[in-house]
Design goal:
Layout lengths: L20 E3 L5 E3 H9 L19 E2 L1 H11 L7 H11 L5 H17 L1 H9 L3 H8 L4 H14 L3 H10 L1 H10 L5 H14 L3 H9 L3 H11 L3 H14 L3 H9 L2 H7 L7 H7 L4 H11 L2 H15 L3 H9 L2 H8 L5 H17 L6
Antiparallel strand pairs: 1-2, 1-3
Keywords: Acyltransferase, Repeat, Transferase, Ubl conjugation pathway
Catalytic activity: S-ubiquitinyl-[E2 ubiquitin-conjugating enzyme]-L-cysteine + [acceptor protein]-L-lysine = [E2 ubiquitin-conjugating enzyme]-L-cysteine + N(6)-ubiquitinyl-[acceptor protein]-L-lysine
GO molecular function: ubiquitin protein ligase activity
Length: about 350
């Protein structure tokens, strides 16, 4: 077996096929027993780079490489040979960025055609290596990795597995990165939408720190229509979980969505309307918010009350009418105009209002 397997399956120290590959802080992989002997002998440098190591170096299991070695070694392995070769390129530390990107694209192409192939890829342990590519500074490699994740997420079993592997941990920082390529942020939002199809993932995504904040920030600051649409769709999907609606409203999603009405982003507003505390939060903004916040709160309330008798009743019960009377004296012309529009909507639904 030692003679026909790729060289990067062999430990750089023992030159034997690794049974328990681990990654050193230098980024290189060694068999656990070999690197532990190296450290036990008093060495405090990487055997390959010769750079100094921490006093207590961490040994991180390389699950992708371990699974790949097993796939190559077992005669009854179900992983297709072409997949093994592509995964081998992906997990090898000696592979170039362009060769990794090409492997990701081919894995995606094969996965898109065959659900059985997708299962093999997921079972091979390569997901961790794909997720690592999402952190790349190379936009081509990053987008190829995201596209493969999206394809793998087509299967419901994979959706839960990808979240367990740490997909959200990779996607959220990318969405928050304003310097990121718009297409990459768009695909990242699409992957979140796909993962959120499974109910349990909705709760997990919503509870993840800054996940909803990230989607709202893309809606607000996105450079292109595509990334904003994908962010709106992701927000719409995860907000079918009630607790996420509360989080989204508190993150300022309603006024941001209203600013994008007419650009195909109306779906997100639909979920915001069904959150019980939405009006109360907007009324709080009317009473205590900044001038800009008041403008957006007025727009949001106008949208919520249009053609909705139930929402009008909630707004009236919260004392919005009295607040509007005071806002008609505001120095800001936009505030006065938005206030007037809201009053007209309220009057249109309740002709008995004496204004």
């Amino acid at each position: 077996m030692n003679t026909h397997l790729p060289d990067h399956f062999k430990c750089p120290i023992s030159l034997e096929i690794m049974s328990d590959p681990v990654i050193l802080s230098s980024g290189h992989t060694f068999d656990r027993s070999s690197i532990q002997r190296w450290l036990h002998d008093g060495h405090r440098t990487c055997p390959i780079t010769k750079l100094p190591l921490p006093h207590h170096p961490s040994l991180i299991p390389n699950h992708a490489l371990r699974s790949l070695i097993a796939a190559f070694s077992l005669p009854d392995s179900k992983t297709p040979p072409e997949a093994c070769a592509l995964i081998s390129t992906l997990v090898s530390s000696s592979s170039t960025v362009s060769s990794k990107a090409q492997s990701l694209r081919l894995l995606r192409r094969f996965s898109a055609r065959d659900s059985a192939f997708r299962r093999c890829i997921s079972d091979s342990g390569v997901v961790s290596a794909v997720l690592a590519c999402v952190d790349s500074n190379d936009s081509s490699l990053q987008e190829s990795a995201l596209s493969l994740l999206l394809t793998l997420s087509l299967d419901d079993d994979n959706k839960v597995g990808l979240v367990a592997e740490g997909a959200i941990h990779r996607l959220v920082p990318l969405l928050l990165l304003r310097e990121a390529v718009p297409d990459c942020r768009a695909v990242a939002a699409t992957v979140l939408t796909s993962l959120a199809v499974v109910e349990v993932n909705k709760a997990t995504i919503g509870a993840y720190p800054n996940a909803i904040v990230a989607l709202v920030s893309v809606l607000r600051d996105g450079k292109g229509v595509r990334e904003r649409k994908e962010a709106a769709t992701a927000l719409y999907t995860i907000c079918s979980f009630p607790e996420n609606r509360r989080r989204a409203v508190k993150c300022g999603a309603v006024p941001v969505l209203l600013r994008n009405v007419g650009s195909g982003l109306e779906r997100g507003v639909e979920e915001m309307e069904s959150y019980d505390g939405c009006v109360q939060i907007l009324v709080h903004v009317l009473r205590n918010g900044s001038c800009r916040g008041i403008q957006y709160a007025l727009l949001a309330l106008t949208s919520l009350c249009t053609n909705s008798e139930e929402m009008v009743m909630v707004v009236l019960e919260e004392g919005v009418l009295e607040i509007c009377v005071g806002l008609m004296e505001n120095d800001n012309e936009k505030v006065r105009r938005n206030t007037s529009n809201l009053i007209q909507v309220l009057r249109g639904n309740h002709h008995w209002i004496g204004l």
